[in-house]
Amino acid sequence: MTGFIGHEACEATNRARWDERAAAACHQPLPSLTCRFQHAKSPDYKVDRFIHDTAYVGDVVEFDRRRLGDITGLNCIHLQCALGTGTLGLARLGAASVTGLDFSAASVDEARNLARATTGSGGDRLAFVVASVYDSLKVVPPQSFDLVFTGIGSLNWLPSVERWAKVVAGLLKPGGRFFMREMHPMLVAVDYEREDGVVIKYPYFERPEPTEYDDPGSHIDTNGQQFATTKGYEYSHGVGEVVQALIDQGLRITALEEHQSSPWNALPTQMQHVGRGELSPKNKRIAWSINHLTSGAGEFALTDQPWRMAHSYTLQALKEEK
User: Fold this and answer.
1) Is residue 286 part of a domain?
2) By the 8 A CB rule, do 299 and 181 touch?
3) Checking phi first, is residue 185 left (phi over 0); if not, alpha (psi -120 to 50) or beta?
4) Number of domains in the chain
5) Over residues 24-41, mean pLDDT
6) Of 71, 72, 203, 252, whose Cβ has the fewest other Cβ atoms within 10 Å?
7) Is 267's pLDDT higher than 60?
8) Any idea what the CATH number is for the domain that residue 131 is in?
9) Which residues form a coiled coil (predicted)?
10) Widest CA span of the chain, in angstroms?
11) Percentage of the chain surpassing pLDDT 90?
């Protein structure tokens, strides 16, 4: 980009973008929750289902449920939690407590509303903090969490994966583990405006400056609403850079899986909705393991030969006891 405004200014712009999209007035509130925020009323977040279906953990958490394993009794922190739906999902899997942290005050406000609306089904075990990821160790006790969890669409808002890894390591107790599912940088590097094939346009590796974009809409369904804060800034981080950053902080990588689907339709003209299942790594056909084309499910894959490219990945690491 030209005329780089600095990382702090980029973060301020991104925060304003998230706050505005969260805080847009809701004309038809959800029946069990006064929905003041545009993202909260989007069908993509399924807030109403979280309220009425007390067993629902969300499609993103459900995708990695078997990888997460038993988290009963763990003290967890969910970095960049947005509206807190994934945070609630972790509580419903049995976590003793889950702290959600996000830089958007409007999003955290809505997350707290969701927690109040789900008291008795996980919401009473949630707490939320407004802060930049890089300030996490200033607002929560260091080395106090059994599990640090990060969901889809998080690292792209952060300029330095090295600084991020220091935070992750600093939050974990000895013996604690880190868990993340994230968009694959190969998918993010593809030109999303092309309709004639997969063409690389954006960086794969971390660069000194972010990619600037101008978009009055949102990454989710907000019924066509246009917003005043149109600029945004996103950063790229290669898988190797992410892995090495965690290793450099003394964490041991315990699992790394690449997936042939993502919960985000990154290439609208070249991807299709494929349900809640996973592409079988042993089968090059589109073979979905659960609930193929289930209504409301959240995985997408390239329509043509999705095995050509990783869409997302799950990474796990352990802070070993000394």
Assistant:
1) no
2) no
3) alpha
4) 1
5) 40
6) 72
7) yes
8) 3.40.50.150
9) none
10) 55
11) 71
The pTM of the full predicted model, rounded to 2 decimals, is 0.87
Element (DSSP H or E) covering residue 210: none
What's the pLDDT at 228? 67
Show the tokens assigned to 233. Answer: 């800034």
Rounded to whole angstroms, the Cα distance separating 132 from 102 reads 6
Q: Which of 68-72, 189-193, 271-275, 285-289 has the lowest mean pLDDT?
A: 285-289
The pLDDT assigned to 275 comes to 79
- The DSSP code sequence of 144-187 is -EEEEEE-SS-GGG-S-HHHHHHHHHHHEEEEEEEEEEEE-HHH
Q: Are 221 and 23 in contact (CB under 8 A)?
A: no
**CA 224, 225, 228, 232: dihedral to nearest 10 degrees?**
-50
Burial class of residue 46 (count of CB atoms within 10 Å of its CB; 0-12, 13-18, 19+): middle
Structure tokens at 21: 């999209």
Give 171's contacts (C-beta < 8 A, 6+ positions apart). 77, 136, 137, 140, 142, 143, 144, 145, 148
CA distance 86 to 148: 13
Q: What is the pLDDT of residue 6?
A: 95
Question: Which domain covers residue 40, as residue numbers?
Answer: 7-184+204-260+311-318
